[in-house]
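Whiteboard transcription, Tuesday session. T.W. wrote the structure tokens on the left side:
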């Protein structure tokens, strides 16, 4: 069986397991092929394209783009080889920092999987052009970016354009089950949420011969705050989103925290990001979200959501409730990465209500940004202060000769935020 046939069969079987009919989940509007574009051709982008094709085989990938030509070409070759007749990329594989416009112009639906810094720009362009959107997380790296995303979500609503967020746990059937039980009162009133995302270090990319400073930083984007939002915004946002969800998507009023950089000592490989943060998000009635994240090798690892209520406790990912209403979940098959695309295409085809995840994806991303800033500064900062902040993490242009907002010294070191003390060059410790 060809991979294409296998994926079609898998999509039907998966949709049936999730309670969707074959007609609605896979073959709705047989004669209405949707043209889909991909912006950002890294691993997440190629994964999103694969999952979209699995969710609804009555689509066609018609254009792709990436900042780098080699990555765009690799993704184009991969998709055409794996999905054959569902991909048509002759003369529609683009590259460059503004190539997202060429893709969006050619499609009905766009998968925004580019570097987080660029997401507010591409989202605004997409909704202004009347396109439906799958938007990866996080959606911005600063206050102005968040405000732009919220405005784009309003424009999308006015135009009846669907937006599905890459905060994929919202589409996981087992997590949905647990969250419904929490919201239905299984643990009483939720008083406190503790989020953990304790893992090892992620990747970095060395400077290549001939790289301009802009090119090096974009290639090594995860390790620069202006591009990724720092690791807690880029990765821990999944857990922060469940904390926000627990409180019905109502944001906190303020936050304070501690954080630093203890093991990311290599320069310039790790740019200017931290490797550990602990943040308390405060609500006016005394409730709180305590978020602990770390990317350090050789340490205790844990990723889960711990909710404390007036009647008991819940661990969301483990599927356990203790207290007055005990419950141990029997997990069902649930590919959340495919499910989010199934729901998007069902909404576009009119087989489910309109979807616009714009507000909660912006608020969850802002939780990451707020947490980063209280750790960077050592200050207590209110939600409103961050939402209204005019501090924009932007370069002086969007070409390979542009100047990024952070630059190395003569030894290749980048300035690191010092709580209570501004910025300082990080000292390399061996």
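and on the right, the sequence the group agreed on:
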């Amino acid at each position: 069986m060809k991979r294409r046939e296998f994926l079609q069969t898998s999509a039907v079987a998966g949709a049936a397991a999730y309670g969707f009919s074959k007609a609605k989940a896979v073959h709705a509007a047989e004669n209405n092929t949707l043209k889909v574009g991909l912006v950002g051709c890294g691993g997440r982008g190629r994964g999103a394209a694969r999952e979209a094709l699995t969710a609804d085989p009555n689509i066609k990938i018609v254009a792709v783009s990436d900042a780098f030509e080699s990555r765009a070409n690799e993704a184009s070759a991969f998709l055409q080889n794996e999905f054959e007749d569902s991909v048509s990329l002759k003369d529609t594989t683009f590259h460059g920092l503004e190539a997202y416009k060429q893709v969006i112009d050619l499609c009905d639906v766009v998968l925004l999987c580019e570097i987080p810094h660029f997401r507010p720009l591409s989202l605004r362009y997409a909704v202004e052009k009347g396109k439906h959107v799958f938007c990866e997380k996080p959606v911005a790296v600063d206050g102005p970016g968040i405000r732009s995303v919220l405005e784009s979500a309003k424009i999308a609503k006015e135009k009846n354009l669907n937006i599905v967020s890459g905060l994929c746990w919202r589409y996981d059937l087992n997590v949905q089950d647990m969250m419904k039980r929490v919201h239905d009162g299984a643990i009483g009133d939720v008083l406190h949420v503790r989020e953990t995302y304790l893992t090892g270090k992620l990747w970095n990319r060395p400077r290549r011969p001939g790289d301009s400073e802009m090119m090096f930083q974009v290639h090594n984007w995860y390790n620069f705050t202006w591009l990724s939002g720092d690791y807690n915004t880029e990765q821990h946002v999944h857990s922060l989103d469940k904390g926000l969800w627990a409180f019905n998507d109502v944001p906190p009023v303020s936050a304070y925290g501690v954080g630093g950089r203890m093991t990311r000592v290599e320069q310039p490989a790790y740019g200017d990001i931290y490797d550990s943060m602990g943040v308390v998000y405060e609500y006016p009635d005394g409730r709180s979200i305590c978020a602990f994240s770390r990317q350090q090798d050789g340490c205790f690892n844990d990723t889960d959501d711990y909710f404390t209520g007036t009647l008991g406790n819940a661990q969301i990912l483990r599927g356990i409730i203790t207290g007055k209403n005990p419950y141990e979940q029997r997990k069902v098959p649930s590919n959340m990465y495919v499910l989010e695309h199934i729901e998007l295409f069902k909404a576009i085809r009119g087989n489910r209500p309109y979807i616009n995840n714009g507000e909660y994806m912006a608020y969850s991303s802002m939780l990451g940004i707020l947490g980063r800033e209280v750790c960077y500064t050592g200050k207590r900062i209110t939600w409103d202060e961050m939402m209204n902040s005019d501090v924009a993490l932007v370069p002086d242009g969007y070409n390979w000769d542009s100047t990024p907002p952070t630059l190395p010294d003569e030894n290749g070191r980048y300035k690191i935020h010092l709580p209570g003390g501004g910025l300082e060059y990080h000292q390399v410790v061996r």
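Someone added at the bottom: Residues 1-30 have pLDDT under 50 and may be disordered.
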